[in-house]
């Protein structure tokens, strides 16, 4: 849909090509949570509009989270999106729909669904090679398994927070190379990771693997994710089991969930995979995604990571996560891993952008950064190609660092 009777500028954020879902409130306590759809400067109260128009799924989309809607499955997702395109596109619906539009600037946005499990992958060859060089200079940058399977780890679902939530600087053990024993204290190498998150709607039973080509049957939507990372905690603790407290203190997500159906025009072939992956990691459909991320530090753009350079696709990651018979639950989140392109200004974390702090970033306001300082604000945005030259908008995920407690 490119037409709407609403006054939405063609290049406005959340034009009719996106129609993302979120959860909003307008009361001071944020207690009355409703599901909404962002359209231009408005949020459409989805449950209220569905009731007014006697939609059969009205119950499933009334909130207070997206959980029931996500669990309803692909047929309902498609039906709701088609109805939204009709309601917002056909002037015959204006009288019924307009009363359910809320000024987007006046709403509070909440974590839109209950996070079940949270898995984070490591799918950018550029990022993994750079991190390998920095963390393990004496070894090959990529581990021998890297091109055979999408490497990942289980993160902490309970600390996934919505954009705008402040992040307290973590404390823990770190061991500077110059010290004989670990020290305890506030992290001094606090970092971000610009990532793309995916949330599962349709569950799968235990014992059954989900196929690469069933991606769109299970995955409800796509959003931005900042995997805040303490590099000093991480470097000391990660051997041999991988990331733990260095990443579990907070993970921020954008509040608007972009439906997979909005990304048809953004689908591209991923980079060629060599060696050829095992059959369970192969599918007929291309699930590379041409998303353009931007990373801002205190308002200054510091990187533009290109998602289409990711080696492993989200569809391959979903198949890999379930190939051992692990089930999927509604609300399972999996994240792409840090998005880094081949160029220096395409790197999705400060560890890479400053080469482990050795090459500080000089910001346009004259300040320098190696890692994050208290008070720093990090914002990640993204857009993607939509139909007929339109852009699909992801909005933003933002967060500010508070001092350690
Ligand atoms: O190579 C390592 O030791 C770990 C790298 C990471 O930071 C893990 C991670 O979060 C993966 C990613 O975001 O790409
Ligand atoms: Ca990560
Ligand atoms: Mg994290």
From TrEMBL:
Residues 18-112 form the Fumarylacetoacetase N-terminal domain. The lineage of its organism: Bacteria, Bacillati, Actinomycetota, Actinomycetes, Streptosporangiales. It comes from Nocardiopsis coralli. InterPro entries: Fumarylacetoacetase, Fumarylacetoacetase-like_C, Fumarylacetoacetase_C_sf, Fumarylacetoacetase_N, Fumarylacetoacetase_N_sf. Its EC number is 3.7.1.2. Residues 119-384 form the Fumarylacetoacetase-like C-terminal domain. GO terms for molecular function: fumarylacetoacetase activity. Keywords: Calcium, Hydrolase, Magnesium, Metal-binding, Phenylalanine catabolism, Tyrosine catabolism. It comes from the Bacteria. It is an enzyme of class 3 (hydrolase). The keyword Metal-binding applies. This is fumarylacetoacetase. Pathway: Amino-acid degradation; L-phenylalanine degradation; acetoacetate and fumarate from L-phenylalanine: step 6/6. Its cofactor is Mg(2+); Ca(2+).
């Amino acid at each position: 849909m490119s037409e709407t009777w609403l006054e939405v500028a063609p290049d406005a954020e959340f034009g009719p090509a996106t129609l993302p879902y979120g959860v909003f409130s307008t009361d001071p306590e944020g207690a009355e949570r409703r599901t909404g759809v962002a359209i231009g400067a408005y949020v459409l109260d989805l449950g209220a509009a569905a009731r007014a128009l006697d939609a059969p799924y009205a119950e499933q989309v009334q909130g207070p989270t997206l959980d029931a809607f996500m669990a309803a499955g692909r047929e309902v997702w498609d039906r709701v999106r088609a109805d939204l395109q009709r309601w917002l596109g056909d002037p015959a619906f204006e009288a019924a729909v307009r009363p359910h539009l809320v000024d987007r600037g006046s709403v509070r946005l909440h974590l839109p669904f209950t996070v079940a499990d949270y898995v984070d992958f490591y799918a950018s060859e550029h990022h993994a090679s750079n991190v390998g060089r920095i963390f393990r200079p004496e070894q090959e940058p990529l581990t021998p398994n890297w091109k055979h399977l999408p490497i990942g780890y289980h993160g902490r679902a309970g600390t996934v927070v919505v954009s705008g939530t402040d992040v307290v600087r973590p404390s823990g053990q770190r061991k500077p190379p110059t010290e004989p024993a670990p020290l305890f204290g506030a992290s001094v190498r606090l970092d971000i990771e610009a990532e793309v998150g995916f949330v599962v709607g349709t569950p799968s039973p235990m014992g059954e693997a989900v196929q690469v080509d069933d991606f769109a049957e299970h995955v409800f939507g796509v959003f931005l994710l900042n995997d805040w990372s303490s590099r000093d905690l991480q470097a000391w603790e990660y051997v041999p089991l991988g990331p733990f407290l260095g990443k579990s203190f907070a993970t921020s997500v954008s509040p608007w969930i972009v439906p997979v159906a909005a990304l048809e025009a953004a689908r591209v072939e991923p980079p060629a995979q060599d060696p050829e992956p095992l059959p369970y990691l192969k599918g007929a459909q291309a699930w590379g995604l041409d998303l353009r991320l931007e990373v801002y530090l205190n308002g200054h753009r510091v990187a533009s990571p290109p998602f289409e350079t990711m080696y492993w696709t989200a569809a391959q990651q979903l198949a890999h996560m379930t190939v051992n018979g692990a089930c999927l639950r509604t609300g399972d989140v999996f994240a792409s891993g840090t998005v880094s392109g081949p160029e220096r200004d395409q790197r999705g974390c400060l560890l890479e952008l400053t080469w482990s702090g050795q090459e500080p970033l000089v910001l346009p306001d004259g300040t320098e950064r190696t890692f994050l300082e208290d008070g720093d604000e990090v914002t990640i945005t993204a857009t993607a190609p939509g139909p007929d030259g339109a852009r699909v908008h992801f909005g933003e995920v933002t967060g500010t660092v508070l001092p350690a407690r």
